[in-house]
Amino acid sequence: MTDRRRHHDMGGLEDGPVEIKEHTSEPWEKRVDAIRSLLSDEQRNMLSVDELRRAIEDLGAEAYDRYNYYERWMAAMTNILLEKKILGVDELGRKMAEVEARQGNKPL
Amino acid sequence: MSSDHHHDHGMYDSDPLHHHPPQPDLEDTPLTHHQIMQIAVGELLIEKNIISADELRAQIEFQDSITPARGAELVARAWSDDGFKGRLIADSKAAGDEIGMDVGPVPILVMENTPTVHNLIVCTLCSCYPRFLLGIPPDWYKSRSYRRRAISEPRKVLSEFGTDLNDSVEIKVHDSTADMRYMVLPMRPAGTDGMSEAELAGLVTRDCMIGVTVPEGPSKA
Fold first, then answer.
1. Residue B26 pLDDT level (bands cut at 50, 70, 90)
2. Is residue B40 within 8 Å of A99, Cβ to Cβ?
3. A:B CB pairs within 8 Å
4. Which pLDDT score is estimated for A3?
5. Where would a tag sit more exposed on chain A, N or C end, judged by fewer CB atoms within 10 A?
6. Tell me, what's the pLDDT at B3?
7. Boundaries of domain holding A44
């Protein structure tokens, strides 16, 4: 059965000792979490917990390993917004380029 | 901040090489791909009137206000009031409502530790966690090692947290899902008779509501 598991399904596998580390939220992580909560509330109902988990799993094993926790959330949440056509690929691409350019204009 | 680099460092700036502090300000570090994505998605959602900037700010403030003190309040009340404890175990949402506490949108089962049964929570598939009661999960809860091993060798995992249970104590591990989450109701420590609810709540740590530790009684000064 083990070979049929998907990458996120890791319960019961062997590993080393738990590294007991806390988490200090960075501002951008708090915003990811806040956007997720707002999209999931009763008023908007655009993103369920199950949908987010499915989208995180669909990022694939390679991205799952390479992205950190909130990066997975952000990528998965964005994919759902694109799937549902709440956002368009083109407008997102343009906006991301704009954000990046704005950053480039900042003084060092 | 000025748009060129000839800003004035003030009267103490005598360094002709124009030296900056070795630690850059957070805002000066380049944004990662996902951070750019976050800003872009946030701005688009605001432009489309799906969310507002005020809602975003309020949500972050709300998130910041949630600490394990909420879970501890429920535990201390349960320790002090058997009737409440029964209701908390039967229906945590209704019990929370009694004291004006929202336990969150996902149902939470409260698992009671006894002298013979110790409960531990994990989410092997992702990171489901009683966030409305305990805040954001620590990194170790989301770690591969914890997700992998909590269900197969819980006793060993507990010992890594300094918790060594007697072999006669059965350990029940509860694997959370998107639709069902858990919180552990620890056993009230000895030597706490006569303590107020607020004092009791002070003994209840996040980790003992996850089940990796057990609460300690008041230190004998």
1. low
2. yes
3. 168
4. 62
5. N
6. 44
7. 27-104
Task: Report the residue of A2, A22, A25, A35 to disrupt the B interface, i.e. the one with the largest count of B CBs within 10 Å.
Answer: A35
Question: Is residue A4, in this structure, part of any structural domain at all?
Answer: no
Residue A67 domain flag: yes
| Cα distance between residue B206 and residue B221, in whole Å | 24
CATH 3.90.330.10 in chain B, residue ranges: 69-210
For residue A16, is it within any domain? no
Name chain A contacts of B8, Cβ cutoff 8 Å: none
* Set of chain A residues whose Cβ sits within 8 Å of the Cβ of B151: 11-12
- What class is the B69-210 domain? alpha beta
How many Cβ atoms are within 10 Å of B180's Cβ, its own excluded?
A: 13
Rounded CA gap, B150 and B130, in Å? 17
Range ranked top by mean pLDDT from A91-105, B144-158, B206-220: B144-158
For A82, the token pair is: 């694109």
Give CA–CA dist B150/B118, Å, rounded: 13
| DSSP string covering B117-179 | EEEEEE-SSS----HHHH-SPPHHHHSHHHHHHTTT-HHHHHHHTT----TTSEEEEEE--SS
CATH at residue A46: 1.10.472.20
